[in-house]
Specification:
Elements (H helix, E strand, L loop, with lengths): L15 E4 L5 H14 L3 E5 L5 H11 L5 E5 L4 H9 L4 E3 L5 H9 L3 E3 L1 E2 L2 H9 L5 E3 L2 H13 L8 E4 L7 H6 L4 E4 L10 H16 L3
Parallel strand pairs: 1-2, 1-9, 2-3, 3-4, 4-5, 6-7, 7-8, 8-9
Helix pairs in contact: 1-2, 1-8, 3-4
């Protein structure tokens, strides 16, 4: 089906993506280490954070290779190159921009574009998306996602992002969601590494309870 060969979604132990919007470079490593030690294997630094490329570079240098580090709120294809240049391997967008998706796939990066409709979902897969981020998930809800997954290829990796917390995992998993992106329930500017660690451990425990 894809016109562009996609980079496969990694075989994580837990399909949890930490969204650290607003993190600063001077605190990024401590926050990232807290997340990794709790069991998160993917960390997204949105590009509307302070000096995001510096944070991504610092995280990539500090964390094990098994932890996927990259950028969120990627809106332009040129930004994909900038993320790769600092070692980022994950490109997350709030929308379905086929140029961003295609560029990510071409560079061998994991692509997680935001989609909300069947039209967007199929366009994203066609241009090389590794997985689909249903966003904002709280607007679709588990029932809306379940209806959309019914028409998508069975192997499609679905992520629920936007208004999702660990208490929602079970309902979304029943609807066909495999991955979850956690933002404000996990990290907000001003949170200490200790606070993030506490929230991360709670999220991992909730995820593990699904199996």
């Amino acid at each position: 089906m894809p016109e562009t060969t996609s980079t496969p979604w990694p075989d994580f132990r837990r399909d949890l993506v930490a969204i650290v919007r607003g993190v600063r470079p001077d605190e990024a490593v401590a926050i990232g280490e807290a997340l990794a030690q709790a069991g998160f294997e993917a960390i997204e630094v949105p590009l509307n954070s302070p000096e995001p490329l510096k944070s991504i570079e610092a995280l990539r240098r500090a964390l094990p290779e098994s932890v996927l580090v990259g950028a969120g709120t990627v809106l332009e294809a040129e930004q994909v190159d900038a993320v790769k240049d600092v070692g980022g391997g994950l490109i997350v967008s709030p929308n379905c921009d086929v140029q961003v998706i295609s560029r990510s796939a071409h560079l061998g990066l994991v692509s997680l574009p935001g989609v909300f409709t069947a039209t967007e979902a199929f366009a994203a897969l066609k241009h090389g998306a590794s997985a689909l981020k249903f966003f904002p998930a709280f607007n679709l809800g588990p029932d809306g996602i379940k209806a959309l997954t019914a028409v998508l290829p069975k192997e499609t990796v679905i992520a629920a992002v936007g208004g999702v917390a660990d208490g929602d995992f079970a309902a979304y998993r029943k609807a066909g969601t495999r991955a979850f992106g956690l933002g404000s329930s996990l990290y907000k500017p001003g949170y200490s590494a200790e606070e993030v660690a506490k929230r991360a451990h709670a999220a991992v425990a909730a995820y593990d309870a699904l199996s």
